Amino acid sequence: MTLISYIMLTMALSITAEIFCGSVGLLLPLPALFVFYFSAVENWPLGVLTGAVAGTVIDVLYARDFLYTPFLMALAASAGSFWISRSESKSIALHCLPGALIAAIYCAPLFFSALSASRFSFYSVFHAFSGIVFGIIISALALPLIVICMDLLGETMGFRLYRNARDKTQPLKG
Predict the structure, then answer these.
(1) How far apart are CA 91 and CA 69, in angstroms?
(2) How confident is the model at residue 169 (pLDDT cuts 50, 70, 90)?
(3) In Å, how far are 88, 91, 105, 167 from 8, measured between CA atoms?
(4) 3-state DSSP assignment of residue 145
(5) Distance from the CA of 23 to the CA of which of 90, 99, 134, 168 falls in 20 to 30 A?
């Protein structure tokens, strides 16, 4: 019960941060990064469920016609369960790679939506491209920090830690 409350509070704060940043035009895919973390630490189905709920809430708050964010969150959850089994997950600096990949996947539909709505004008292409690049850079820097901070917080609360989940999985060769 404590774990579910912890996940709900964390996701509520990350959704609030994304909506706040999105209202001023910044793409900040924090909920997808937290879904990645919870999927890696706990298990894949919990990550997908967390992502589906968070994605639905985000799409409802943005009043989108098509609810595509839950599908993107499911991709982030699968990336988390895949990355934790890789031997590269032992290096905290290499977490910039999945952070950037998650942001690219998360921001791509918004990029193409902005382009098609503006009929591919130069200003809209530049604005959309700079937004997705900003989101990728921030996400690449944020994922290692999220892993460190969530492990510190989880250690004080007695939850499973990313470093322990990483050590207990069999690394994939390649």
Answers:
(1) 29
(2) low
(3) 29, 28, 23, 26
(4) helix
(5) 99
Q: Are 49 and 74 in contact (CB under 8 A)?
A: no
Residues 6 or more apart whose Cβ sits within 8 Å of residue 20: none
CB of 86 within 8 A of CB of 101? no
What residues does 86 pair with on adjacent strands?
A: 172
- At 141 the pLDDT is 95
Residue with tokens 């989108």: 64
- The 3-state secondary structure of 91-137, one letter per residue: CCHHHHHHHHHHHHHHHHHHHHHHHHHCCCCHHHHHHHHHHHHHHHH
- Give dist(CA 135, CA 44) in Å, integer: 24
Q: What's the topology of domain 2-168?
A: Arp2/3 complex 21 kDa subunit ARPC3 (1.10.1760)
CA separation, residue 53 to residues 16, 46, 126, 168 (Å): 14, 11, 32, 28
CA distance 117 to 100: 25
The amino acid occupying position 155 is: E
Encoded tokens for 109? 């539909």
Measured CA distances, 65 to 61, 111, 113, 122 (Å): 11, 16, 12, 26
